[in-house]
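Notes to self, Failed axon connections:
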Amino acid sequence: MACVERAGGGAVWTELSRWANTTAGRRLAKTLLAAALLGVGLKLWARRRRHQRRQRWSQAGKDVVVLHQFERGTNMPNLSPFALKLETFLRMANIQYVVDADEPQGARGKCPWITINGEELSDSELIMDYLTKHFNNPIPEQLTPAQHGVGRAVQVMLDEHTTLAVGRKRRILEQMGNSIYCFLKVYRSECVFKKLFVSLIKKKLYVRGMSEYSEEEALFFLYRELRALEDVMGDKPFLLADAPSTYDAAVFAQLTQVLLGCAPEVERYVRENHAVLVGYHERMKAKYWPDWQQCRA
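result:
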């Protein structure tokens, strides 16, 4: 049996060798070689570009944050609530930073991420925690443990659930029909960008358990959480007190998505039913984003 197998294998090898010497075989070999060389060349080129970018970022200066995020949106500074949250936090904390859109996703595939003093960090919450310690609590907060608990619960609700309801509405149910115009024209290709983006979001929503909800169900979650947010805020000028806290960065970022980057009927509903949230959003924008118009694409 072993002899038969070796003989069979030898026959196959002989046929492959004979075919490789034909015109078609030589053409295929050249094509594969060219593809391999191209792949190696592209990899080396990408590595060189990556090295050059990091050299440029290292020249930003000591304790200057290089904020890596997607390009500016046309109606808001960024369509990523997490990027907008982090940039708002940097402004609240008076931390010097520069924006880079050449490499918007870091090693974990997340946006935003930062470079500071040669160190790379990702995930907006981990970044904010690091910077808070590094700069010795740059946002003055006089909150009780109970207030911190409420603030954290609100932040998790917004970052982990509200954002999924917004994503379900604007990216899947609306098929980017409204929010596509928040992107630069170069990204508005109906046949490439839109379908690819929707496909990626569908996968994320499936993993997080939001992919099968109807429009009515998605809006039920969204409106219920906006009501809860307004109930927590009450008549206070900011989320937890008379002065803003770190948690306000998440609130402002998510409200921006709801008001300016979801769907016209959602914006209309919020403006008609949540005057407290609308007033809060305008207060935060005026206080920390006086250059709002200049920060739009």
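- The longest strand covers residues 65-68.
- The CA atoms of residues 70 and 92 lie 21 Å apart.
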